[in-house]
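#struct-help
A.M.: can someone run this one for me? Single chain, 334 residues.
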Amino acid sequence: MNADLVVERPAGLYVPAGDFYIDPWRPVDRALITHAHADHARSGHARYLASEPGERVLRSRLGAIDLQTLPYGESLTINDAKVSFFPAGHVLGSSQIRIEVGGQVWVVSGDYKLDPDPTCAAFEPVTCHTFITESTFGLPVYQWQDSSEVFAQINQWWRSNAAEQQASVLYCYSFGKAQRIIAGVDASIGPIICHGSAQGLNQAYRESGVSLPATLSVTELADKASVRNALVIAPPSAASTPWIKRFGLHGDAFASGWMLLRGARRRRALDRGFVLSDHADWPGLQKAIAATGAQRVIVTHGYEAVMIRWLEEQGLQAGAFRTEFTGDTGAQDD
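D.P.: on it. Structure tokens below:
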């Protein structure tokens, strides 16, 4: 029986044949990064390897790091392991990492979605023997509406608030979700104002070749009257802060896959909840897994037990890795 290409260690997911880690949560010598969200890309590693499209956002988040990048689809041999990066469709630069050793192929998916998103490369299935998948929304209840319909709902809500001469504050994660929303809404309705945590990332996206409508920081506003028909993009942590209070009376909403559940909307006590996720829903997870042709699937963060049971019902070998990845929990401004 072939040895596992990826194993669990205290520092994270380790590839013995290459002597490197994937998205480690403790400092290591060499880290391969699937994407720049804070639960996958941490500071403190000696050397980093990531996809070329994600370079600017990764540097924006981690600062001065020893970073090597690789274009999607190109391979690099590290010791006895051949590695390559393929689009995951999650956020700008997000990647699945393909590892080949002695004819065996494993793919570490990181986080991914199958829904269209103009701000990042689309998910690309990679054939493999073993697939390591997330399961953030790994329950049958999680099935997403078409994103074009969600953006139509956001635009309608924004127009309604603008007609009442009040700002529309939309809470979302600063990296990925914010840029997807900015690219998807109707910018003719009014100005788009971004919290500083998103505005810097907007610039990194633009420098990476992603087209986004103009966005303003709050310091660039001419006067208070200019916010009355504005869409305000802010992280969840900004709620009830002095930064938010400067917009006066406003409508508020949150964009997340968790908004599918009424209880989640009630707990946040917001006017609206828009169901928009950067993770695959239940059908998306099933489709992505099937497309790999993998006979073995290892599940990470999310609803592992439910996903493993479904995988075994399909006749696949299934298991789980214990990781410190959080997915779209709302615990971070990602």
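A.M.: thanks! The mean pLDDT is 94.
D.P.: also worth noting: Residues 297 and 318 are 5 Å apart (CA to CA).
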